[in-house]
Design goal:
The chain is α+β, with helices and mostly antiparallel strands and 117 residues long. It contains 6 helices and 2 strands; from the N terminus they run αββααααα. It has a two-stranded antiparallel sheet with strand order 1-2. Strand 1 and strand 2 form a beta hairpin.
Length: 117
């Protein structure tokens, strides 16, 4: 017998497992960069594995590592080689670290709001 979840997008167990498995592994994230309304990069690429994500989350919980260092480490470790120099320069501008990190994390993590409502 197949289980169904409650909600408007009900799927059977096999479909649920297929969806879950499709979201596993490294995720490629593309982040366009605009500064003061000017597009400076059409899509900076990051490849984030579960290990990268977990290291970022765990580092943020460690009193010896600042959230700023944890965020910078995540970005610098996962950015594509061809985008690394631009990222390095972008991170010298106040506020860019937070904005880019939030965009990367938001694209990596699935939308689970329906479960949490």
């Amino acid at each position: 017998m197949e289980n169904k979840t409650e909600g408007k997008n009900e799927i059977n167990t096999n479909e649920a497992m297929a969806l879950i498995k499709s979201m596993q592994g490294a995720r490629e994230v593309i982040v366009p960069i605009s500064l003061n309304g000017t597009l400076v990069h059409k899509g900076m690429k990051f490849t984030v594995s579960i290990s990268d994500y977990n290291t970022f989350i765990n580092s943020g919980q460690n009193a010896k590592i600042s959230p700023t260092i944890a965020a910078k480490d995540l970005l610098m470790h996962t950015v594509a080689k061809e985008d690394k120099e631009m990222l390095t320069e972008l991170l010298k501008i106040a506020g860019t670290l937070d904005n880019i990190t939030m965009e990367v994390v938001n694209q990596v993590a699935p939308d689970m709001s329906a479960v949490l409502d």
